[in-house]
Structure formats: C-alpha cells, structure tokens
What does this fold into?
Amino acid sequence: MIYSLVGLLVARATDLKMGMVAAAETGLVEATLGWAISWLVGVGRLSSEELPPAAIVATVIGVILSAAVVGLIGALIGRRLGRRATVAGGA
It folds into this structure.
C-alpha cells in the first residue's frame, strides 16, 4: 500500500517515471534502514548462519524491484486520475 501510494502521489505531481523511482527509493530505505532499526530493536534478529549476507542483498534487491513495480502501478492509477490542481495565489 505504501509503495503504491507513493507512486500515485508523486506521479500526480510529476510523471510516471518519478512515481516509480520514488516508490523504489522508499523500498530501498525500508529494506535497509528499516531492517537495520528492527534488528537493533531486536525484532527478527537472526544470526549470520541463519541469514547469510547474500540473502540480505537478494532481499534488498527484491524489495526494491517489488516497490518499483507496485509504485508503477500506483503511478499509472495516479496519472489516470489526473494531475492534482495546484493552488496559486492562495485561491
């Protein structure tokens, strides 16, 4: 939901490509920083034997690609809904 909403909102303000890129960037942050914070807190902490570095890299790449695809779908919906009207001059 978050990735599609990011794609939708950014695409409404800019274009499809930027909507997809913004969702992919959101996925990157979630899969790296979010995962690291969860591990520091202790949620889902695994040993290196349980989760080798290659699996971490594969997961991060998978999340980024999934976020990009879902973001593109959201961006397409956002573009279909049309550009958001901007308010100029406080009107």
Remarks:
- Residues 2-81 form one domain.
